Amino acid sequence: MKNNIEDALPNLSLVFGYIAIKELQRKEDRVAVLSRLGYGNKQISQICDIPIGSVAVFKNMSKKRKG
Fold this sequence. Notes:
The chain starts with a helix and ends with a helix. The chain contains 5 helices and no strands. By secondary structure, the chain is an all-alpha fold. Helix 3 crosses helix 4.
């Protein structure tokens, strides 16, 4: 029974991720912020509702712009 309740509730770290990006419109910006906060690709894809492959693409785009 305990596992069913835990599965139904959102992970607290995911909730913080949603809060951190709620004002950002561009997915690239959302990925960059979550990445800086230490979220992994799987968590970022879940929070932003995008495929994991897209997370990697956005991270690479961000690196290329900085460099």
